[in-house]
Amino acid sequence: MGGRVLLAAFGNAHADGLRTALSERGYTVVVTEERAEFDVVVALQEGSPPALDAMAVSGVGRAVVVVDATPSLERSVAALRAGACDYVTDPRDVEAVDLALQRILDRRAIEDRLRELDACEAPFGTEAVLLGESAATLRVRATLERLQNSDSTVLITGESGTGKEVVARVLHRSGRRRTGPFVPVSCAALPAHLVESEFFGHARGAFTGAQMARRGLLVEASGGTLFLDEVNSMPLPVQAKLLRAVQQRAVRPLGRAAEVEFDARIIAASNVELETAVATGAFREDLYFRLNVVHIELPPLRDRGLDVLLLAQHFVVKFARASNKHVVGLTTGAASALLAYGFPGNVRELQNWIEAAVALTRHDHVTETDLLSNLRAPTPSEEPEEESLSSWNTLEARHIARILDEARGNKAEAARLLGIDRKTLYRKLRRYGDKKDEPES
Fold first, then answer.
1. SS3 64
2. CATH no. for residue 56?
3. CATH number at residue 272
4. pLDDT (tens digit per residue) in 209-267
5. For 22-96, where are the E strands, in sequence order?
6. CB neighbourhood size of 415 (10 A)
7. CB burial class (10 A; 0-12, 13-18, 19+) of residue 145?
8. 284-287: long-range contacts (C-beta < 8 A, 24 or more apart)?
9. Which residue among 184, 378, 404, 419 is buried most deeply as judged by most CB within 10 Å?
10. pTM as predicted
11. 231, 272 in Cβ contact below 8 A?
């Protein structure tokens, strides 16, 4: 992400090289004489004047990164005390300068987004998973718009929690079948011995316990939409019958000789790659092609950038109103924590986080502590995925470090603030690499 950088060089010999290097990395670099608009100041200096004087260049409310060719501890302390956001000790270390600038610009983007969200006076639309401005989200919305009034069969894929059923309902409501029934069925939840009967129906007395005739889900969905969630879990024999039913638009209930016609749109969803299931023989290739007329792939939340803040704000407003609490948004720390977390449970997990945080907070903005106070670390028996555990460890380590800083290094006080005992705190510190000052057993 580039930005407009004011280079305050103070006659430093490294100015031209740094200006060229930052320009090559996508920044627009201006110098003090140009008096142009800028986002952040890079105060490049050597010898006199001291770092404190660099602050005068920034003006009111501008972030400053001091890059010092003659660094010292005293100059660093002076710069940071005067309000510098970062201090880089070598003007040739472009990577360090770039990282410092990105931290500032990323934080500013978060703060700007939070200000925009705080200005919202009403809840957002009801379909939360479709909120956002990321390229991935916009692609999904564009596809849904093109499918309005379409009867095409649709296959929706994506990780658990990305909102596949929500998208299926949107498709149903935007089509010509909107006044008909929407019949959702979880293929994974149906008992194996009842799957065929549930889908295709049965006559009275067709098998033990069949005291009444049943039309079956395909017929029940006539005039509307049948949503097959986790279609990858459907047994192979039922896949063959479903393929024939979809092709013929008719089913033969168990115990009946005559077929029954139906007129339902089919929308299927899977949280696994059906191409892989086809390759392994777990899913019929011909059924896959029949279902995959139009494919919608829902992106995981971790690939949606700042959408997570828009979604979080939606849930803050929703749950605050439901519980009659005055909670209007997120703090910058909470927003940063949300952006840093991988969300293996996607939008569903984010919703649960925010619901708990709104219930627990004592402030008008959800804080980072509110988010973490109800977040449970995975236990060894749960065997979480490596990515999920890594995301948790990163987030928990950052939170503990912040609390320790607030407690000025006092581990007993930090444990109290964290709501854990000292031994637990020391155990967590050892996990994250701090093996000093272990408590007596």
1. strand
2. 3.40.50.2300
3. 3.40.50.300
4. 556 667 788 889 999 999 999 999 998 988 998 899 889 888 877 666 677 888 999 99
5. 28-31, 40-45, 63-68, 86-88
6. 21
7. exposed
8. 284/236, 284/239, 284/240, 284/243, 286/243, 287/239, 287/240, 287/242, 287/243
9. 404
10. 0.63
11. no
